[in-house]
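Ticket #4471: structure output looks truncated?

Reporter: J.K.
Steps to reproduce: submitted the chain below (332 residues) through the standard prediction queue, then opened the result file.
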Amino acid sequence: MLGLGLDPELVLHENWPEPEPAKGEARLKVRLAGICHTDLELVKGYMGFQGILGHEFVAELEDECLIAGQPCPAGTRVVGEINCAPADFSGSAESRRHCPDRTVLGIQGHQGAFAPRVCLPAENLHRIPDSVSDPQAVFTEPLAAACRILEQVKIEPDTRVAVLGDGKLGLLCSMVLATRSREFVAVGRHPNKLNILTTLGIRTCLLPHSETVADLPADLRNLDVVVEATGNPNALTLACQLLRPQGVLILKTTCAQAHPWNLAPVVIQELTVIGSRCGPFPMALAMLESGQLDPSPLLEEVFPLARGLEALALAGQKGKLKVLLQIPGLGD
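Returned output as attached by the reporter:
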């Protein structure tokens, strides 16, 4: 079947084998998939992955399947959590994210969704509410990652919070945190991206070229929580400088390159550093269904899978937002 992946270099070809569901897995027909920063880092060598890329997707069931104890017929639209534990694993969804024997969809040992078919454990699947469109639902996985912050840190209305980074994930983190804190601010490099937040009534701040605290507004210092979501490890120093003593730094960036980081400020300021990865799909889907959050303004362009290489190249350009792949069925 046609697929976009690493074999071992980045290729788009029709020689990928059709996936066969293992015990406890469901086979899905992919409808739409999103390209994210992690996919771009995998192409650079992150995780040493080989296979079909893609972990943000909307699909439909190929056969009837039990989802959350409810029978769902073939054709039911679903999204899926990306961490796949062995069939005999009995832990929670949160513990599944850290199962030492897990595979990760399109990232580690599990063929991804940039193809017409993909297989996932049935327990990973979530039905998409009827009122949520495919282009909205394809944001479920990164939106859940943004919601993970709310599980890790208590955000009150008066919590002073900033997100560094106005990429796709940074914007979603900003949208989520702004629903909890009235003291929130998003800091980024791109006026056009920050304007998406401004139109939603979210305070923003354009990062000066100097990238120094001295050139930022005075009230952007001594923050309680800073989320680093720039995709650039160089931003870690600035993130620490924005925090008050005993503040909390949330790390969202993953990248292929190694980077030295002076940890002395972390020790001296007694900062708490929290890695933050995958999050709760039910919370993300509830936000989409209620209309509390609409990621549609983050959509850049939609390409057919046959133009996948072009789509990946566009997604890798600076300043671009979410690029999607429309995936035809095998008979289309």
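Triage note (M.O.): checked the attachment and the full token line is present. The longest strand covers residues 25-35.
Status: closed, working as intended.
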